[in-house]
Amino acid sequence: MNLILGLLIFLFGFALAAGGLWLVVLGGSWYYALAGIALMVSGVLLAMRHRAGAWVYGLVLLATVGWTAWESALDYWRWVPRLGLILGLGILVALAAPWLRGGPSLRRAWSLAGALIIGFVVAIALAFVPRGVYRGDAVPKATQVQAQVTPSMPGVSQPADQPAGDDWAAYGGSQKATRFSPLTQISRHNVIQLREAWHYHTGDLPKKRWGAETTPLKIGDSVYLCTPHNILISLDARTGQERWRYDPKVADAAIPYTAACRGVAYYVTPPSRGTTIATSETPDAGTGLETEYEGRPVTMPDPVAVAPSGACATRIIEGTLDARLIAVDAKTGAPCADFGTNGEVDITVGMGETPPGYVSINSPPTIVRGVIVTGHQVLDGQKRYEPSGVIQGFDAVTGQLRWAWDMTHPDWSGAPPAGQTWTRGTPNMWTIAAADEQLGYVYLPMGNSTADYWSSQRTAPENEYATSLVALDVMSGKPVWNFQTTHKDVWDYDLGSQPTLVDFPTARGRVPAVVLPSKQGEIYVLDRQTGEPLLPVEERPVPGGGVEPEQRAKTQPFSTYATLRKPDLTERDMWGLTPLDQLVCRIQFRRASYQGIYTPPEAARHSIEYPSYNGGSDWGGIAIDPQRGVIVANYNDMPNYVRLVPRAQADKLGWIPRDEGNVDSGGAEGGGDPQAGTPYAVNVNAGWRLDFTKLLCKQPPYGGIRAIDLASGRTLWDRPFGSARGNGPFGIRSGLPVEIGTPNNGGAVVTAGGLIFIAAATDDLIRAIDIETGETLWQAALPAGGQANPMVYAIDGREYLVIVAGGHHFMETPAGDDVIAYALPDGSGAPGKVGANGMQ
Description:
Helix 1 (2-25) runs parallel beside helix 7 (579-591) and helix 4 runs antiparallel to helix 5. The chain starts with a helix and ends in a 17-residue tail after the last strand. The chain is an alpha+beta fold. Residues 144-155, 273-308 and 830-840 have low confidence and may be disordered. The protein has 8 helices and 44 strands. The longest helix has 24 residues, at 2-25. It is globular. The protein has a domain at 2-126.
């Protein structure tokens, strides 16, 4: 036994010593080298049955405890890799000690082993203790008043323009995207009684790249949603029974990075709405309706026109993965014959070559003043000159192109001139826009130019509008203002989150504002009309260098209002299951280029991107409780490990664009992207995992959820979000209910009942969290990953919570086709019906 134990400890020590000496050469910690050498000595002595071997091991154990306390303080997750294996082997040494020459008695040795076992068990038990919850000032109490409704303009009133009541009429609840429901039947006091009310299966399960990301709508007595292959479905809001479905026949070849349909749009054709839009810029189209909003003169569409009637008076409009706009009758699911050609419009007209999967609409379009505004995803990482990111506006009744914004051709307002195409490779908007119907503005969170990690070939307009929030006048299709969150982006820090519109409290009163979260974690608050920051934004110095040092901006914009970003990484933040894999991560950290946020990518070595391209905040966005004045933001807290690969090397590896014969493996974005037409391909280790253990190199938590005071930007509470239930070493799902803080995709909904409903994490749970304390009050297991934003509605006096559980390939959660509604048991809620403002 002693021979085997000694050999095991010797080999363990040898690995620590070898790697530790490398780490010392790189300027890292001396612990691993010194501990490794001491363990080698201990192993040899134990194999020789010399009691000094146990003493040496004991000294290593004590020194490790001291070193861990010095390096980690009371941070539990830092103790795990540093001490776990050392302590476990120490138990074996204590058990074997009586058989050493001159060793202790059996009783004394086993007493020591028992004490070490108790310590080991206590350490494991501590993993189940909630930790990391920061509580600041108390969350403001709800005012319990009806949310203010901005008067609608004549002829353009839409359910999506109003705050959510009994309905959920837009992806974010309304066009303002607060994701707030004024319903109160489900509250902190009774949420524990939530039960499944109905469960529907769509029947659409992609074999790879699954990730529905869908938030349904509810209008009247119907729920509307789309599936990964863009099948449109209407359900009975009371029972979940299918009423109709329409299949646009989207092929698997059209699936880009993810088979996602985040949602649909609902449009009511105004009673006096014709097919012509009158604007102040087209005087021959009609006189228009002159009015004011926030002191600004606006011209509305002329309401005197021929009114459509009958079929498609209300319609569901979606974008598809093969780049079509589809319009169907909301009551029957039949295509709207008056819309485009047989109910569909091809948005790729004017784009030139568009291989399958390169142009996809995966987010719901935004409809403002009768104009469907749509962007689209352009497949990341394939080529420098991929199809254009042009933003287009189509008539919501006829499908006719009203305008298009191609940033490099500001003089173009319609289709490209004969023989020309929209500019290739320009930034696109793949995520969800917000809109102000009265201003007539749509707020576009713009992406980056292709390719993401090389900037030298970008034009001046691309550098101006990439990774910016752009306010577009929907009547002209021209930008009014833009606010850039990253200059000359080579980190894939495109804006993924839908912005949120609020009336922001300031010293001069409430100002119409847009709250913009970013992947870097910065949260900006801008004047909705001008784009000027309402709270200061500082241009701070950032690292330079990389493969394009002349291209790198010397400063980047940092918000002084609020940030989800954590402190820069250090070697001490590296993690693992044991000291060995932690050591590997520490060596990788020391070998990489890292000077903090905005460290540029390099070719000679890896660089660390922190936060990663998954955020901070991503497509799930934020939720805002306007009654309490609280922002709820879930976020990711992971790095990426990035290296630019020279073109010749990439060619040898067979990294070619997908349309040129590359096999679509369904892997992580950026993992071997060719970036053809630039000097470098890119290889992104998303989340920075070790190949062997599949664990992330950064210590937990990997995700959190935070409540922020809207007026001041102060953190009210912050906690890890997501348990280890669906995660574990070697890709094995541990099933452990340890709140470790996991990666998460998808956002939250908040209610006047004081609750935050959210799934998103990789543990396949949906939770109700107390908005005042951050405490989880209720949770339910989902049959698949819940990477989608939930929604809340009421019908017949009963409140429902709905989540689409489709799973996600990138998050490695199980695929599903489940739409699940939860409600209180009949009669268990407060008496009376739930009204439009949520009051009883």
